[in-house]
Every structure is written in C-alpha cells, then in structure tokens.
UniProtKB/TrEMBL annotation:
<dbReference type="InterPro" id="IPR049734">
    <property type="entry name" value="NudC-like_C"/>
</dbReference>
<dbReference type="GO" id="GO:0005829">
    <property type="term" value="C:cytosol"/>
</dbReference>
<comment type="similarity">
    <text>Belongs to the Nudix hydrolase family. NudC subfamily.</text>
</comment>
<dbReference type="InterPro" id="IPR015375">
    <property type="entry name" value="NADH_PPase-like_N"/>
</dbReference>
<keyword id="KW-0460">Magnesium</keyword>
<dbReference type="InterPro" id="IPR020476">
    <property type="entry name" value="Nudix_hydrolase"/>
</dbReference>
<dbReference type="Pfam" id="PF09297">
    <property type="entry name" value="Zn_ribbon_NUD"/>
</dbReference>
<dbReference type="GO" id="GO:0046872">
    <property type="term" value="F:metal ion binding"/>
</dbReference>
<keyword id="KW-0520">NAD</keyword>
<dbReference type="InterPro" id="IPR015797">
    <property type="entry name" value="NUDIX_hydrolase-like_dom_sf"/>
</dbReference>
<keyword id="KW-0479">Metal-binding</keyword>
<protein>
    <recommendedName>
        <fullName>NAD(+) diphosphatase</fullName>
        <ecNumber>3.6.1.22</ecNumber>
    </recommendedName>
</protein>
<dbReference type="Pfam" id="PF09296">
    <property type="entry name" value="NUDIX-like"/>
</dbReference>
<dbReference type="GO" id="GO:0019677">
    <property type="term" value="P:NAD+ catabolic process"/>
</dbReference>
<keyword id="KW-0378">Hydrolase</keyword>
<dbReference type="InterPro" id="IPR020084">
    <property type="entry name" value="NUDIX_hydrolase_CS"/>
</dbReference>
<feature type="domain" description="Nudix hydrolase">
    <location>
        <begin position="130"/>
        <end position="256"/>
    </location>
</feature>
Amino acid sequence: MNWRAKLLKLDGLMPHVSDTNALEWGTLADCAEDAELVFLGLDTDESGGTKPCFAAVPAVGDASPRMANPRLWAVMATLSPDDLAIYGGARSVVDWHARHRFCAACGGSTELAKGGWQRNCTNCGAQHFPRTDPVTIMLVEHDDKLLLGRGLGWPEKAYSALAGFVEPGESIEEAVAREVLEESGITAREVHYIASQPWPFPSQLMMGCTAIAEDTEITLDETELADARWFTRDEVQAAMSGDADAPMNTPPKQAIAHHLLQWWLDKGK
C-alpha cells in the first residue's frame, strides 16, 4: 500500500473541513485494509512531485436531495471552488459505489474496478458505471421579466430557475419546453444553452439554459412548485445585491442558478 498517497477525509459522505475552510486529507493509513478506494487523480506538491489521491467508499450511500441535509449545504458554502469541485466529484462516485454493491442484471455482488470508475459483477460479469443524470435548469424571459419558482418546502422568499430531468429520447430544448409547460403552464421557445454544473446530489449534471415565453399566464403545478411568478429586472438586481426588502431571495453562489441570474443581469446592461 502506498502510504504517501492522500486520502480525502470523510465521515460517511460528509467532508472533514479545517479551521481555514479547506478539505482535510490524510493518508491510506487512516482507512481499513479492506476499504474500497476510488482514485481521484494526482496532486502536485510545491517540489513538483505528485501524490495519488483517493476517497474511501462509505458503508452506506445517500440518495436524498441536497435540501434534506442543511448541515452539508452550510459546509459546502465555506469551501473554495477547487475544493468544492474535488468534494463534489468524490462524493458522487463513492456514493454511487455504496449504493451499487449488487448487480442490476442478476443480483450478484459487485466489486470495484478500474480505479473506482467501474463495478463488475462477480457472478455474471456485467459491468456497471457511475451514472450522470442530465437536468435542465432554465431562465424563462418575457418583456424583460423572469419566471422563477419556489419549490415545495422552500422558505417563503426563496425563488430559483425552473428545473427538471431530461427524459429518455428528449433533446435539451425539448426538455426545457416540456418542464416549463408542465410546471407553469407557459409555452417556451428559442431555447439556448448557457453553461453547466455538476451537482452531486446524487449525480446530476445541471445544464443551464434560457428561453422566451410566448405568454405570461401561470397555471401552477402544485405537485412540483409552491409558487411561481414573474420578477422584474430591478427586483432581481435588488435580490442579487442582498437587499433585505427585495421580494425574493436568490440561490447561493455555489448553485448554477445564481450565475444564470447574474448572466441575465449582465446581458441587459
């Protein structure tokens, strides 16, 4: 065993964070001899040398949404972008391993392969790979206003871009139009891709888009949203500036929705 290698310190799926809000690393001596280890990549030190980096697969995974773990969200808000990316990737993969110890084809046990980026069935030989679920998240615009929604159980003023999973056989553009219509009753067109963000809760890839609404009358799907409404540019700007009197609270900076809102404000300057 390479005792010089680095091990990302996790308590289950929760990261250990230092007093300076950085991820904490140990060595392979900190994990059990029979631990399943996922190779995360190589870290270059000040001398130019490299050390392999690993994360250990926990005993159990967690497929619950991010909102179900406010403690984790608070920790993530303190991490630097680089540490957040490392943790996000590591969490997604080790969580997948913890929840896929048995084969979907025959029910046999599986074992880690290819540095943790594959599992193989010990019975039928089927190969399984970490999944990524595509999600569209979109700003819908009409006459310099944005359609934003508040999810079920969200705080009263918390609004964000509408979002939803891409269904089998759909394009990104089709998924945007369908989700907007289903959640708000509004027909969207002229869909354009802006940016993407991995979101490991447990394995989403958020694909940020914009679209133009053909109408403004909202028919709310109350099984998906608690509220949806149109916000003016001044209202969005006030919220992004931290104005306590703004009619909405914006998503945190760690979320792509925050950057989509800033992109929309900058585009209108």
